[in-house]
Amino acid sequence: MITIKNKKNGQGLKRAVEELSGVDISVCFQCKKCSSGCPVARLTRSRPSEIMRQLHLGAGNELLESDLVWMCASCETCSARCPMGIDVAAVIDALRKLALARGASKQKGNVPLFNRAFLKTVETFGRSYEIGMIAAYKLGTGKLMNDTEKFPAMLKKGKIALLPPRGGDRKTVRRIFKTVKQNKEAKA
Amino acid sequence: MRYAYYPGCSAESTARDMHQSTLAVARALGIDLVEPKGWTCCGATAGHQTDRLLAVSLPAANLTKVQDMKLDMLVNCAACYSRMKVANHEITSHSSIRQGVREALDRDYDGSVKVRHLLEVLLEDVGLPAITKAVKRSLNGLKVACYYGCLLVRPPKILKFDDPENPTSLDRLVTAMGGTSLEWPCKVECCGGGLSLSRTDVVVELTGSIIDMAASVGADCIAVSCPMCQVNLDLRQQDINKQTGKNYQIPIVYITQLLGLSLGISSGELGFNQLMVPASSVLEKIHERA
Predict the structure, then answer these.
(1) Of A59, A113, B96, B277, which is the most buried if we count CB atoms within 10 A?
(2) Do residues B143 and B262 touch, judged by C-beta distance below 8 A?
(3) A92, A121: one domain
(4) CB contact, 8 Å: B52 with chain A?
(5) Is the pLDDT of residue B290 over 50?
(6) Which parts of chain B are beta strand (E)?
């Protein structure tokens, strides 16, 4: 069952999602094709079609706590199959950005932490650097031993590079990150 | 045939085997690959989940480098391929994005560099008859489940790669090499992609059903063209087996590795020793010892 709380501040969420994603939420007619094709919907409490409906009905920031927001694998099956051409995956991307901006606390899990660790290595080296990323990520999660049994074999097979990547145009990449940050601050 | 080859970050770590086999196959088929100097990360999933301008500017930095080379860009990583094409689309359809990218890169980019996936080049530019002719070792008797995953085919309106629900590019290549491509329903299912470390539980669940299906149709191996799919399906079989009590040992090979074998290139040169689930059964079938 779909329940809507905080309807009054909810309109702000719908507008913000529409602005970030370029999607017109109201054209969804609830055929549920997105939820049928969603590979993670069998594991989540919330489904893409329900998120669409809740947004339409004026749900507020509580929607940012939905487990789908951070369990979505960005496979884009929902967008590819929507008969109305709605980019549902862009709606979920928008919810992720809003969840970060508005500090939604629950259900975030480790995905934002992983994304930050990944992008930090890109900003530093111009290319992603797995060992640096994994170290920062594991320190953040506090679960240092997860998956470590696979490291020796991966190192031996050369599937993880020990040294940071070289040769990338770091200057341009740093400029990109700086501009994005300035843009965000200007909007805030 | 000359292209600006964008290897992507995985080529230097988890997918060195994809990179090596791509270079070996290109050499054998007379495809000239030139790396753009100073190429950088495309931002991957983390980029577009974080910020739209970041998600477009990171690929654009590479597209401008290729524009200066006056060549088409060739990509083998499905994730990079998708990000490059989406960036071009965003820049050509929204002037505000183009303006943002101009600020971020300190130069204008019009979104016009042509981005091709290696499979497109193999099928359209080289052509299947030429590939069949170049085959030195037939894959006869090898049953291959071709797995496309998400980012080769989605978003279909922008990528326009093959049929988004039932692609056949990999299958046609396998057939051209004399192998048997299997019919199975998981071609464009998702492996969990970038959730590999952050939501391993989800990835084990999704890859588990894909591996299970490949086993039930009798696949000798799964052929892929995406480093994230490869790592998830290869590395997580151990976890799947631990969780379900099964004993799956299905080699997850890059299509370029299979193609290399059929062109007579040694398994060592194609990086077969980098696979977590050993591909010795595959090599034996085509009479090549690891």
Answers:
(1) A59
(2) no
(3) no
(4) yes
(5) no
(6) 2-6, 32-34, 73-75, 115-117, 143-146, 180-181, 221-224, 252-254
How many helices and strands, by DSSP H and E, does chain A display? 10, 0
Residue with more model confidence, A17 or A135: A17
Minimum-distance CB partner of B50 among A75, A119, A153: A119
Q: Cβ of A161 and B12 within 8 Å?
A: yes
Res. A103: pLDDT tops 80: no
The C-alpha atoms of residue A114 and residue A117 are separated, in whole angstroms, by 5
Across the A:B interface, residue pairs with CB atoms under 8 Å apart total 170
- Which residues in chain B touch residue A168, judged by CB atoms under 8 angstroms apart? 38-41
- Domain B2-117: state its class: mainly alpha
pLDDT score at B289: 45
Q: How far is A58 from chain B (nearest CA, A)?
A: 23
Q: Does A179 map to a domain?
A: yes
For residue B36, give how far its alpha carbon lies from the nearest alpha carbon of chain A (Å).
10
* Domain's final residue, options A101, A125, A154: A101
Q: What is the CATH number of the domain that holds A19?
A: 1.10.1060.10
Amino acid A54: pLDDT: 95
Residue type, A59: A
B66 touches chain A (CB under 8 A): no
Domain span(s) for CATH 3.40.50.11810 in chain B: 136-285
Could A179 and B104 be called an inter-chain contact, meaning their C-beta atoms sit closer than 8 Å? Answer: yes
Q: Do A137 and B199 touch (CB under 8 A)?
A: no
- For residue B107, the tally of other CB atoms under 10 A from its CB is 13
B64/B4 Cα distance (integer angstroms):
12
Do A179 and B276 count as a contact with CB atoms less than 8 A apart?
Answer: no
Q: Are A23 and A88 in the same domain?
A: yes
CB-CB under 8 Å, B106 with A169: no
Give the burial class of A147: count Cβ atoms within 10 A of its Cβ; 0-12 exposed, 13-18 middle, 19 or more buried. Answer: middle
pLDDT, mean of residues B210-216 = 98
> Which structural domain range is residue A59 located in?
7-101
pLDDT at A12: 74
Cα–Cα dist B186/A128, whole Å? 29
A180/B57 CB distance under 8 A:
yes
Correct CATH for B136-285 of 3.90.1150.10, 3.40.50.11810, 3.40.1700.10, 3.30.70.360: 3.40.50.11810
Closest approach of chain A CAs to the CA of B34, in angstroms? 15
Residue A170 pLDDT level (bands cut at 50, 70, 90): very high
